[in-house]
Design brief:
538 residues; alpha/beta; globular; FAD/NAD(P)-binding domain; 15 helices; seven-stranded mixed β-sheet; seven-stranded antiparallel β-sheet; single chain; 27% helix
Length: 538
């Protein structure tokens, strides 16, 4: 491959982790770095307006718009899985929530045999990324590139939600990212000056002129190339033509929990029987590639209000939309600057849980589905999800064609614990709605409506449950004796050289909350691991 373009490092996927890696690895001008992304640049204005989440949720130009296989426990419904397809990846289209997860999540990773991933070891990397507008040491930083901003104005609906939760024993908190996650309050958001702060905005925009960094967009990687067991380059498709790039040091796969395992399988790393089925030469028989798929399943309870304090009202009238626009233009505040979810809550609903096991997102608007058209009445949405589901699914190729999406089997609600937790979560959400002062603002329940028994509530979950966009675990790290561990604790792909996976697929278990910031943390730590490896070889 001597005639082919060559870089020290090739990063596949410009999402939450990929953008971090491109920034940190190219900081040394001696390192040549290529970042390659299947989607376009992040030019769409809807990416940068926080409320544009409702638009990008359905936009095929920046969203892969995947669907799972029909899910037996979800009454055979295929579940819509949006994933980012542009610079910034899913950080350019997500709900903006700043959550790290619980201390116990990372200590659990360490206890599973992943040295270096305990809370005390990952906290410096969370802080390295964080530029918080309000919170500082010892748990936070105000100088990192990825901004975490507080919501400027209180909202009467969120205030009522907080007070009702207080009545049920949930304390108010001003920081969901401290050592005790339990509480209710306002989320901090990945925004700055009323605009989205994606990984691309935080990590790529300031360095795009570096001479040693090449960013290639609209280019889908079709396979990783190997010489014997060493990753030496990639093949990609751009404009209908195939191209190749060589790597001198490492290839880092950061295509996400759905497409990282797909690309490994297409490249000959995966379950041998699956690869043989499609005539793919086996580079390394790795049975865990694509297994261990986890996701947060959310249930959306919808209520009609008896007061015009819903964002529905503003969005449904010309004067309301003008006011929203002026709030943003003049003050960088209001719904355009916040997005959809403002209020958050973490608590326990299962007797065996030692830490919060459910999470709420309170939206000051309502629609039939996330990102759908708002209702013509004043309404709001309480979304609740189980934080640590036991159910596991898988991802596997259905064709050797890299342009064909893989098969995604979520297997939601396959354990009794997950079903029981879901029922308890919906019951607790209803308790909040039935407690003053929130109860006094509610005219009627739209969903779940007539569901009363546990059987009815479970049926509501099956008919209405949807992803909260957190697929993880499909190339999990773990100790060498763990059969399905695809990666070692330094995120190197077992059985080959020169290849790592750095994204949510590497997580052995789901963090307790939104996954964008944990993915960024992994990118920060992986950059250090990669550079340390290179220094040791010199």
């Amino acid at each position: 491959m001597s005639s082919i373009r060559s870089f020290d490092y090739i990063i596949i996927g410009a999402g939450s982790a990929g953008c971090v890696l491109a920034n940190r690895l190219s900081a040394n001008p001696k390192h040549s770095v290529c970042l390659i992304e299947a989607g376009p640049p992040d030019y769409s204005p809807w990416i940068h307006l926080p409320i544009g989440y409702g638009k990008t949720m359905w936009d095929p130009s920046v969203n892969w718009k995947f669907h799972t296989e029909p899910d037996p426990e979800m009454n055979n419904r295929p579940i819509y899985w949006p994933r980012g397809k542009c610079l910034g990846g899913s950080s350019s289209i997500n709900g903006l929530i700043f959550i790290r997860g619980q201390k116990e999540d990372y200590d659990h990773w360490h206890d599973l045999g992943n040295d270096g991933w305990s809370w005390d070891e990952v906290l410096p990397y969370f802080k390295k990324a964080e530029g918080n507008d309000r919170l500082g040491e010892p748990l936070h930083s105000q100088i990192g590139p990825l901004r975490a901003s507080s919501i400027k104005k209180t909202h009467p609906l969120v205030e009522a939600f907080i007070k009702s939760a207080n009545q049920l024993g949930v304390p108010t908190t001003d920081d969901f990212n401290n050592l005790q996650q339990e509480g209710v309050g306002y989320y901090q958001l990945s925004t700055h000056n009323g605009l989205r702060c994606s990984a691309a905005k935080a990590y790529l925009k300031p360095i795009k002129s570096r001479q040693n960094l090449r960013i290639i967009t609209n280019a889908q990687v079709s396979k990783i190339l190997f010489k014997d067991q060493q990753a030496v380059g990639i093949e990609y498709i751009q404009g209908g033509s195939k191209h190749q790039i060589a790597s001198q040091k490492e290839i880092i796969l950061s295509a996400g929990a759905l497409q990282s395992p797909q690309l490994l399988q297409l490249s000959g790393i995966g379950p041998a029987n699956l690869l043989q089925k499609f005539g793919i030469p086996i580079v390394h028989d790795s049975p865990g590639v694509g297994k261990n798929l986890q996701d947060h399943l959310q249930y959306r309870l919808i209520y009609e209000l008896n007061q015009n304090i819903s964002t529905n009202v503003e969005l449904s009238s010309l004067m309301g939309r003008i006011k929203i626009g002026l709030d943003w233009l003049l003050f960088r505040s209001g719904p355009l600057s916040i997005g959809i979810n403002q209020g958050g809550l973490f608590t326990k609903v299962m007797p065996q849980s030692k830490t919060p096991d459910i999470q709420f997102h309170l939206a000051t608007l309502s629609a039939d589905m996330a990102g759908g058209k708002v209702h013509p009445f004043p309404g709001f949405t309480m979304s609740v999800c189980q934080l640590r589901p036991e159910s596991r699914g898988y991802v596997e190729i259905v064709s050797p064609d890299p342009l064909t999406p893989p098969k995604m089997v979520a297997n939601y609600l396959t354990t009794e614990h997950d079903r029981a937790t879901s029922i308890a979560a919906v019951k607790f959400a209803r308790k909040i709605a039935q407690t003053n002062p929130l109860q006094g603002l509610i005219r009627r329940e739209i969903k779940p409506e007539r569901a009363e028994s546990d059987e009815d509530l479970l049926e509501f979950c099956r008919n209405n449950g949807a992803t909260i966009f957190h697929p993880t675990g499909t190339c999990q790290m773990g100790p060498s004796q763990q059969k399905d561990a695809v990666l070692d604790c330094e995120l190197r792909v077992r059985g080959v050289g020169g290849l790592r996976v750095v994204d949510c697929s590497a997580m052995p278990t789901l963090p307790s909350g939104n996954t964008n910031w944990p993915a960024v943390m992994m990118g920060e730590r992986a950059a250090d691991l990669i550079l340390q490896d290179q220094n040791n070889r010199v």
